[in-house]
Amino acid sequence: MRRGSWKIRIFIGLAIVAFAFIQRCSNKEENPYTGRVQNINMSSEQEIAIGVQSAPEMAAQHGGLYPDERLQSLIDFVGKKLVDNSIARETPYEYDFHLLADEQTINAFALPGGQIFITYALFSQLNEAQLAGVLGHEIGHVIGRHSAERIADSNFWQTVTMGATVGADAGGIVGSIGQNTLLKNGRGDELESDDLGVWFMINAGYDPMEMIEVMKILKAAAGPNRVPEFQSTHPDPENRIEKIKEAIAKYGG
């Protein structure tokens, strides 16, 4: 490679990386529901569209929807009660709650814009108040715009990767960092959603102490060989319990 060509590649690569950082700074905005400043590069309408488009595929990955309208009605009732009695009703998001047919995987998750899922494996172990804790936590992820934040971070890393690739064929390293840190909700996201979930439970008339019982269920499901907290994107259930107790005291539960 000629020296001049090499310099041009470095210059272009640095320019792309600089653009990524400038764009990242310009995307900062305060979440009106949590007060936290975040990097977001999409509107709430785009979040809703992504969630609605992704929902059928996510359901299919867990065996589809559980074929019991009575149980689905209970989930809809609890979810609506949480939304109607919290700041969630003030958001532009469209909350839909889905009971998945998966009887093996203990899990619940939220897509951007309000699509919320819980597997039958987890649902079957919960009473109504504990169900409210799980759904409240997932509503917290939606209001916290955690998926949108991860998408913005992913776009940032993709741009940085492109700049690094142009400049010095190092994109694989940068890209792997971005992927490894953005595939799942981080510890901060989980703790924020726990906090919001406690608040929503109290507002809807549920005993927030039942959220602690949910943590015990998750801890038992993980078993004795669960990943240590420092290796996991999720806080340890014991640490989450302490934070939940603090939230209960804060909100006067």
Automatic annotation (TrEMBL):
The keyword Hydrolase belongs to this UniProt entry's keyword annotation: yes
One example of a Gene Ontology biological process annotation: proteolysis involved in protein catabolic process
InterPro entries per record: Mito/Outer_Membr_Metalloprot (IPR051156), Peptidase_M48 (IPR001915)
Gene3D superfamilies in the cross-refs: Metalloproteases ('zincins'), catalytic domain
Residue ranges of every copy of the Peptidase M48 domain listed in the record: 77-247
Cofactor: Zn(2+)
Record text on cofactor binding: Binds 1 zinc ion per subunit.
MF (Gene Ontology): metal ion binding; metalloendopeptidase activity
GO cellular component, one term: membrane
Pfam families: Peptidase_M48
UniProt KW Repressor keyword: no
Domain of life: Bacteria
Keywords tagged on the record: Hydrolase, Metal-binding, Metalloprotease, Protease, Zinc
Homology family: Belongs to the peptidase M48 family.
Protein name: M48 family metalloprotease
Species name: Maribacter luteus
Lineage of the species this protein comes from: Bacteria, Pseudomonadati, Bacteroidota, Flavobacteriia, Flavobacteriales
